[in-house]
Amino acid sequence: MKKMWKKYSKNKMSVLGFVIIVLLLILVIFADLYVGYDKVLAQDVKNKLQSPSLSHICGTDNLGRDLFARLIYGARVSLGIGVAATFAGMMIGCILGAACAYIGGIFDNAVMRILDVLYCVPFVLQAMLIVAILGSSIPNLIFAVTVGNIPGYAKVTRGAVISVTERDYVKAAKVSGVSTGNIILKYIIPNAAGVLITNGAFYLADTLLASSGLSFLGIGVKFPYASWGNIVNAVNDVYVLTNFWFVWIPAGFLILITVLGFNFVGDGLRDAFDPKMKR
């Protein structure tokens, strides 16, 4: 771990991404200590679209709700959807990819062709179709984005597992009579984990962007919950877009730096895990 951190820390942008994500997590985890959830829902139409002030740090939206509270608690929802969908897609995709690589034959061809069909459908369009059929809710949004993550993860896992199983030390272990379970635990998983973890950071950024996009389009997170996507949805009103920048720019900026942060972290993890970088 020390060697990995040393390699990771050489990439300054990766360290910056790590700092961004840690600071964001601190703000989200300890949100209850400095802002009440009641401000997320409390409406004050008389004070709608108020500019940032001491009483409302980021101003108020078109219903008079405190935008700072909505941004902070919206981060919980947006990041929660991103983490849940990425983790679920990773688990299912890893299992399918590893099974295809290990079993091979007809099973491998059948599963890969089905995943190819899913992979050909644009990610956002696929998620929109699923949410439109199942209805707009957080669980359905997580499910829709998870389905979109599975094909990519399965293909990455399959390639990583095949590359590891073809190495001489794995073949030697098989000839020596080492059990399949031990080979998977001692050789395949540790050597394939780097690729999977690295891709996880990139997929998390894509998932966050996709879920925010769906909420922006009005088919993702809806009232009473706040998310970065449905906050940016205010730009659907041209009057708000042109005259009240504080309603939508902060949420868009948070989406931007969070996606950049995860991508920077992914770059650092790639450098830390990739054996070629040791040169």
What does this protein structure show overall?
With 279 residues, this protein is mainly alpha-helical. Helix 4 (67-103) packs parallel to helix 7 (138-165) and helix 7 (138-165) packs antiparallel against helix 9 (180-216). It is elongated and about 75 Å long. The model has no long low-confidence stretch (mean pLDDT 84). The two termini are 18 Å apart. It contains twelve helices and no strands.
Question: What's this entry about, in short?
Answer:
With 279 residues, the chain is mainly α. The chain has helices at 2-9, 12-29, 38-41, 67-103, 105-120, 123-134, 138-165, 168-175, 180-216, 228-232, 238-243, 249-273.
Write the layout of secondary structure elements.
Elements: H1 2-9, H2 12-29, H3 38-41, H4 67-103, H5 105-120, H6 123-134, H7 138-165, H8 168-175, H9 180-216, H10 228-232, H11 238-243, H12 249-273
The global form is elongated
Strand count, sense and barrel status of the largest sheet are: none
Sequence stretches where pLDDT stays below 50 over 5 or more residues:
none
Please tell me how large the radius of gyration is. Answer: 22 Å
Q: What gap, in angstroms, lies between the N and C termini?
A: 18 Å
Summarize model confidence as the mean pLDDT. 84
Helix and strand sequence:
HHHHHHHHHHHH
How many helices in DSSP terms? 12
Keywords:
mainly alpha; 0% strand; 279 residues
